[in-house]
Q: What sequence folds into this?
């Protein structure tokens, strides 16, 4: 951080402040996303945090790095958002056909995917020595979903300690807690996260030959409308989800019932446009208007893989298509 830039920013130079913040903006947005589980909420909260930093710049005493100071503000803004109220009801378009009985009703209905291209701009910041998660695991949908089930303080502690690698004393200082409170919260958070993790062999590496082969087989089965072939690619404990609708299906038998029930609707999907989300293969789903022939975006489909096949399949609504560079219509 340049002392000259800091002095100019403190003198009211917004361009200097923007130059100070810009190297950290993408990682701060990702941190807010991990805290909140929603890309749109993360963007809004980050803007509030940066405004707070701008207004309170005189309070930065350089006892920690400017990056850590920004993390303090962003984390506490996220905590304020989580504590202020319960999640607002999420409006969701009903399914075109009645779904079968779900395995359960999901709790994280606000979950949104995170475009991989936003991860490309992250600075080369190695996590601290306390980090337990590699970057690809800490952005996966399974991890983000599990984190959303933690109470706010446990959520913040887990992310600061096990993802960003801050030491216990540093995390305590960031959150205004005692070290013992941080240690206790971390122990409980780790136990909750561990209970949600599925044992098994590691997933294929992103972009690997194994991932490409499974992706090709999945796309073929999906576009051929072959339910049997599609389900055959799934693990025995696969999850099928569709936030903000609450219905969740666990296991191949439930998945087969679901895809059979919506088969007529699924056959309207005539094109998949590849993208990536949360480190997973993803696609924009498009259906063709029978009158105009125009292709309309029907949603974003994200597939998480394990070494044994498709372990999660999550359908998201169309609102986030522009973040992935996916147009609402194609000719």
A:
């Amino acid at each position: 951080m340049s002392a000259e830039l800091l002095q100019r920013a403190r003198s009211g130079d917004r361009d200097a402040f923007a130059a100070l913040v810009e190297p950290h903006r993408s990682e701060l947005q990702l941190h807010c996303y991990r805290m909140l589980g929603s890309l749109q909420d993360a963007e809004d909260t980050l803007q509030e945090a940066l405004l707070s930093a701008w207004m309170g710049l005189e309070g930065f005493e350089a006892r920690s790095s400017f990056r850590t100071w920004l993390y303090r503000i962003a984390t506490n803004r996220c905590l304020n958002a989580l504590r202020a109220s319960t999640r607002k009801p999420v409006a969701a378009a009903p399914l075109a056909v009645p779904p079968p009985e779900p395995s359960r009703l999901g709790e994280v209905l606000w979950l949104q995917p995170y475009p991989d291209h936003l991860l490309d701009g992250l600075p080369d910041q190695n996590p601290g020595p306390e980090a337990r998660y590699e970057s690809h695991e800490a952005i996966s949908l399974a991890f983000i979903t599990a984190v959303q089930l933690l109470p706010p303080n446990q959520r913040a502690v887990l992310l600061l300690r096990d993802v960003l690698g801050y030491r216990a004393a540093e995390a305590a200082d960031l959150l205004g807690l005692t070290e013992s409170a941080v240690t206790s919260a971390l122990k409980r958070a780790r136990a909750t996260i561990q209970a949600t993790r599925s044992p098994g062999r590691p997933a294929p590496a992103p972009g690997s030959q194994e991932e490409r082969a499974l992706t090709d087989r999945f796309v073929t089965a999906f576009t051929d409308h072959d339910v049997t072939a599609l389900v055959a690619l799934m693990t025995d404990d696969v999850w099928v989800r569709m936030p903000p609708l609450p219905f969740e299906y666990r296991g191949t038998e439930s998945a087969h019932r679901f895809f059979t029930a919506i088969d007529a609707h699924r056959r309207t999907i005539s094109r998949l446009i590849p993208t990536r989300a949360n480190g997973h293969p993803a696609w924009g789903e498009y259906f063709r208007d029978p009158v105009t022939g125009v292709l309309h975006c029907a949603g974003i489909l994200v597939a998480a893989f394990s070494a044994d096949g498709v372990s999660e399949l999550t359908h998201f609504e169309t609102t986030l298509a522009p973040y992935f560079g996916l147009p609402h219509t194609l000719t």
In short: The CA atoms of residues 40 and 299 lie 16 Å apart. The mean pLDDT is 92. The chain has twelve helices and eight strands. The chain has three domains: 1-85, 131-197, 209-330.
